[in-house]
Amino acid sequence: TRRGFATLGAATVLGCALPLRYAKAAEFTFKLGTNVPETHPLNIYLRKASTQIAEQTNGRFDLQLFPNNQLGGDSDMFSQLRSGALESFMLSGVNVLSTLIPSASIYGLGFAFKDYQALWSALDGKLGIHLRGQINKAGLMVMDRIWDNGFRQITTSTKPIKDPGDLQGFKIRVPVSALWTSLFKSLGAAPTAINFAEVYSALQTRIVDGQENPPAIISAAKLFEVQKYCSLTNHMWDGWWFLMNRRAWEPLPADIKETVARIVNAQCVAEREEVARQNTALKADLAAKGLIFNEVDPTPFREQLRKAGFYTEWRGKFGEEAWNILEESTGKLA
Ligand code: X2X
């Protein structure tokens, strides 16, 4: 798209250069792809990590950030990661990663986590260990901490979503993911799977009438320009794993690995704070830009999911082991 190309030039220039004081070329270079615009906290804190890594490895390791789908959409970047063309990639477990590892999407189950406390205790604890184990088994490496995207809200160009009735037949974009499609089908909607790279234009050209994402993304990707309503459904949480190609990561010297992992995981903690702050604070800002917000009672949505057999179906797909670990943090879901 034209928007894509407009950002490509500027961001490529920003993405490449190591600070000039490192006169020698880096010994190790990792390209890192993300699917959200430069200004989103994900990229801000990854860039801080990149700078600190260069400093603390004396320029030996160069983490080169390529934000905003510069290297292709999620499906493309995931193929590149697996082939080794891309050394690292920020990817949601509920998104394209779940096409390779179905159980990776378990934390995105509808209305599973009631707040951040329950969520971090699960993903920095037993559930996270289980999920990273699954990722390793599939041949990929992953950093310990998952980066925050946020609790998701539905935006539309047509009407506010107040109860499940408003979703009947509603044309909504979802990421490329069986769980996401199943969630919205169970709620009665008509979901279309589209990579985030195409979301702005899909909304603009009315291929779909709505999408769902947290305020920090609605703001950074300027989705308020092509959406009128934002309904605070909090229907699920999502985040990004810092994934790495195994053949790129494994041969690195131990001291480099330790420095890179320590800095990345520390910046992740800072990113979580900023994303949580923005997802609250940006509502006023987006309202001032014309987005009309409404609060939503989640109860009838959950009821609809139960009636549709959503939880029973996914319990079967995820298996008892993963399901029990999830319910330790969420309480009984099915
Ligand atoms: O594709 C999306 O909507 C996004 C950016 O939130 C994810 O990566 C799941």
Written overview of the protein:
The chain is of the alpha/beta class. Helices cover 46% and strands 17% of the residues. It contains 14 helices and twelve strands. It has helices at residues 2-16, 41-56, 74-83, 97-100, 116-123, 126-137, 178-186, 199-204, 215-220, 246-249, 254-288, 299-307, 310-318, 320-330; strands spanning 28-33, 61-66, 88-91, 140-142, 147-151, 153-156, 171-174, 190-193, 210-213, 229-232, 237-245, 292-295. Strands 1, 2, 3, 4, 5 and 11 form a six-stranded mixed sheet that branches. A four-stranded mixed sheet has the order 9-6-10-12. Strands 7-8 form a two-stranded parallel ribbon. α2 (41-56) packs antiparallel against α11 and α5 packs antiparallel against α14 (320-330). It starts with a helix and ends with a helix. It binds (2S)-2-hydroxy-2-methyl-3-oxobutanoic acid (X2X). The site of (2S)-2-hydroxy-2-methyl-3-oxobutanoic acid has 10 residues, from loops.
Radius of gyration: 20 Å
Could you tell me which ligands this complex binds, including any ions or cofactors?
(2S)-2-hydroxy-2-methyl-3-oxobutanoic acid
Count of helix runs: 14
Main beta sheet strand tally, sense and closure:
6 strands, mixed
* Class per helix and strand makeup: alpha/beta
Strand content: 15-25%
Tell me, briefly, the overall form.
Answer: globular
What is the number of beta strands?
A: 12
User: What is the string of helix and strand elements?
Assistant: HEHEHEHHHEEEEHEHEHEEHHEHHH
User: What's the mean pLDDT score?
Assistant: 94
Q: What is the terminal separation in angstroms?
A: 43 Å
Indicate the low-confidence ranges by residue numbers.
Answer: 1-13
Percent range of helical residues: 40-55%
